[in-house]
Specification:
Layout lengths: L9 H6 L5 H4 L3 E5 L4 E7 L12 H18 L5 E12 L6 E12 L3 E9 L5 E13 L3
Antiparallel strand pairs: 1-2, 2-4, 3-6, 4-5, 5-6
């Protein structure tokens, strides 16, 4: 059974990134299923830290991006979601290629959501694990 409450496709999700940090870092939503969403980000100089490896902050941006988009697709039209808290444990460095973040809900509540977001490299090896907590807010009429 699908968790999504709004209609979407990959084109519409990726179009909304125009003129944002998401576009600047090259983040793309690449896949979704009934209860997950995946995004990719290139590992290259614009996402590197000075030592030539993926910047931890870029990993967090990727995790928060895919989690925030998923959270907002998992609420009805009268609600929206904003980030409350994110944490990340960096497990393995990456210097090139792509990293992928796949989010799945741990909790989809009336006022909060919690998302589990592991990141992996091109070979499917874990690079980072993140947990994102979102506030569910009512839109003003």
């Amino acid at each position: 059974m699908s968790i999504w409450k709004k209609p979407f496709d990959l084109n519409s999700l990726n179009h909304s990134r125009k003129n944002t940090l998401v576009e600047t870092l090259g983040i793309l939503i690449t896949e979704f299923g009934d209860d997950y969403m995946t995004a990719s980000m290139p590992v290259e100089p614009r996402t590197h830290q000075p030592m030539g490896i993926l910047h931890g902050g870029a990993s967090v941006v990727l995790a928060e991006t895919v989690g925030s988009i998923a959270a907002n697709m998992a609420v009805d039209e009268q609600h929206y979601c904003v980030g409350l808290d994110i944490n990340a444990n960096h497990l393995k460095s990456v210097s090139s290629g792509l990293v992928y973040a796949t989010c799945k809900p741990i909790h989809l509540g009336r006022t909060t959501q919690v998302w589990d977001i592991p990141l992996v490299n091109d070979m499917g090896k874990p690079t980072c694990i993140s947990r994102l907590t979102m506030a569910v807010l009512k839109k003003n009429p």
